[in-house]
């Protein structure tokens, strides 16, 4: 065993970038795992509702920004989406990947504040 002591900071010595301990928690996130399936830009109308919908909830109709075999990303004016929320998603028109009016269960993996009063919602399809 060898002890190593620096007389001054050498940030890149180990070849690893360590996040600052006093930084904002969002800046300390681990790097994202690469996607299993490639995403393609695609504008398809979808109907979105919370999986455990109550009678008073409003359905959201959005346009996808991109899709893959196991997920999709859409933009919405509703700000009530949150990470971990389960959704039921219906594609309103036929596409090569999804049947029209079929329901898919998804879970929100990320919600982006994209300005102009909208959010971007990344969903992983789970069923």
Describe this structure in words.
With 127 residues, the chain is mostly beta strands. The protein contains no helices and 7 strands. The protein has strands at residues 40-41, 45-50, 60-68, 71-76, 86-91, 103-115, 118-125. The protein has a 6-stranded antiparallel barrel. The radius of gyration is 20 Å and the shape is elongated.
* Series of H and E elements: EEEEEEE
Radius of gyration using CA atoms only = 20 Å
Task: State the helix count.
Answer: 0
Number of strands: 7
Strand content: 35-45%
Mean pLDDT: 78
Weakly predicted, low-confidence segments: none
For the biggest β-sheet, the strand order reads 2-3-4-7-6-5
Q: Helical content, roughly?
A: under 10%
Shape: elongated
Please give the structural blueprint.
Blueprint: E1 40-41, E2 45-50, E3 60-68, E4 71-76, E5 86-91, E6 103-115, E7 118-125
Antiparallel strand pairs: 1-3, 2-3, 2-5, 3-4, 4-7, 5-6, 6-7
Key attributes of the depicted protein:
mainly beta; elongated; six-stranded antiparallel β-barrel; 127 residues
């Amino acid at each position: 065993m060898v002890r190593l002591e620096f007389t001054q900071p050498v940030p890149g010595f180990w070849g690893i970038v360590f996040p600052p301990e006093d930084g904002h928690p969002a800046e300390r996130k681990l790097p994202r795992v690469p996607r299993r399936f490639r995403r393609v830009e695609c504008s398809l109308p979808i109907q979105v509702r919370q999986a455990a919908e109550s009678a008073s909830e409003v359905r959201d109709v959005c346009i996808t920004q991109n899709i893959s075999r196991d997920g999709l990303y859409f933009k919405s004016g509703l700000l009530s989406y949150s990470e971990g929320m389960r959704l039921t998603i219906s594609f309103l028109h036929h596409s090569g990947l999804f049947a029209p009016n079929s329901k898919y269960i998804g879970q929100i993996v990320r919600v982006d504040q994209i300005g102009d009063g909208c959010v971007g919602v990344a969903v992983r399809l789970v069923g």
